[in-house]
From TrEMBL:
Main location: cytoplasm
Keyword Metal-binding: yes
Record EC number: 2.3.2.27
Catalytic activity of the protein: S-ubiquitinyl-[E2 ubiquitin-conjugating enzyme]-L-cysteine + [acceptor protein]-L-lysine = [E2 ubiquitin-conjugating enzyme]-L-cysteine + N(6)-ubiquitinyl-[acceptor protein]-L-lysine
Compartment(s) where it occurs, according to its Swiss-Prot or TrEMBL record: Cytoplasm
Name assigned to this protein: RING-type E3 ubiquitin transferase
Membrane-spanning parts: none
Database matches in SUPFAM superfamilies: B-box zinc-binding domain, RING/U-box
């Protein structure tokens, strides 16, 4: 599967089936389906007793909506990937923080960085390689997986 398809698949997983936008405060119902807190609350407005999942229609006991922190974390990663994909498509290989070319790749954070980022506290103890080397390792690794 191409990397672009992986990003699109990830974006689908972090999209609310009600508003069709990225989740805002993702909550998981007892049935396992996920929604924005505001979307599911709005769906249930006016219903006093029986609450059903807007997706699978399974009856849900009560309105105990707990934030799905793991999904919220995956959502943030998906947003960053989406932004990176958009910048890459535009040919924008420039660090958003330092306006320097992205010549390095931080293996811990799995993201391209500039030379100034490499010297910063955030990446000081991280393993950093030339972006071309990381791309080559990625190609070799994906080729072996097929």
């Amino acid at each position: 599967m191409a990397a672009e398809n992986l990003v699109e698949s990830l974006q689908e997983e972090v999209t609310c089936p009600i508003c069709l936008e990225y989740f805002r405060e993702p909550v998981t119902l007892e049935c396992g389906d996920n929604f924005c807190r505001a979307c599911v609350t709005q769906c249930w407005q006016g219903s006093d007793t029986d609450f059903s999942c807007p997706q699978c229609r399974e009856t849900v006991q009560g309105r105990n909506l707990r934030l799905n922190r793991q999904l919220a974390n995956v959502l943030e990663i998906a947003k960053r990937l989406s932004l990176y994909k958009a910048k890459a498509a535009a040919g924008d290989g420039v660090c958003g923080e330092h306006q320097e070319p992205l010549k390095l790749f931080c293996e811990e954070d799995q993201t391209p960085i500039c030379v100034l980022c490499d010297r910063s506290q955030a990446h000081r103890a991280h393993t950093v390689v030339l972006i071309e080397e990381a791309a080559q390792e990625y190609k070799v690794g994906n080729h072996c997986l097929m």
